[in-house]
């Protein structure tokens, strides 16, 4: 499990590739049409943890491209008391998402045979809360399969996914609808779920679900 102190170490760009990754994450955020570049940089300076991250020694950094190849669970924790405002969370999660993608590419160059790479399941909860992260992953959806990675996205309502919603429908996506979910979720996938009707989902036993998997 990665705590906040680990985030400060792992986020520090210890070589050109990692520096480019951080630059990519920040560049994506700096393109916001509502908040200027100066304000974004001020966000970095105001958060003491993000500032320490940029100054942290790199001797204890890990190589994520190696760690993700092991059969293990890696949890990236971002306590709300550390990342207080949405912009701070967006900066950090966009960085981590770009770092994961870069690590997948590094692993692919090191292990050309796809059959020998460990499958990576990337679980992201409520990605709609970090808009630039959602945009970034949406752009990468069609590339992740060749790197043996599967994103798993959870949300309360499908229409919360502003940027990713339509792309998921075109990306051979599987869906799991938990019992008792809002009818709007059913309407979103009504054609794919036929002949199941909304009442079938609403009346299911608690903690059960419908699974919709592409052929």
Can you tell me about this structure?
It is a single chain. The chain is mostly helical and 215 residues long. It contains 11 helices and 4 strands, in the order ααααααβαβαβαααβ. The chain has helices at residues 4-10, 16-30, 37-46, 48-55, 64-67, 86-110, 131-140, 165-169, 183-188, 190-193, 198-202; strands spanning 120-125, 149-154, 175-178, 209-212. The strands form 2 sheets. Strands 1-2 form a two-stranded parallel sheet.
Strand order of the main beta sheet, please?
A: 1-2
| Largest β-sheet summary | 2 strands, parallel
Structural class: mainly alpha
- DSSP helix fraction: 40-55%
Q: Residue ranges: pLDDT <50 for 5 or more in a row?
A: 1-14
Number of separate strands: 4
Shape summary: globular
Radius of gyration: 19 Å
Number of helices: 11
The end-to-end span amounts to: 36 Å
Instruction: Tell me the β content.
Output: 5-15%
**What is the H/E order?**
HHHHHHEHEHEHHHE
> Can you give the mean pLDDT?
77
Topology of helices and strands:
Layout: H1 4-10, H2 16-30, H3 37-46, H4 48-55, H5 64-67, H6 86-110, E1 120-125, H7 131-140, E2 149-154, H8 165-169, E3 175-178, H9 183-188, H10 190-193, H11 198-202, E4 209-212
Parallel strand pairs: 1-2
Antiparallel strand pairs: 3-4
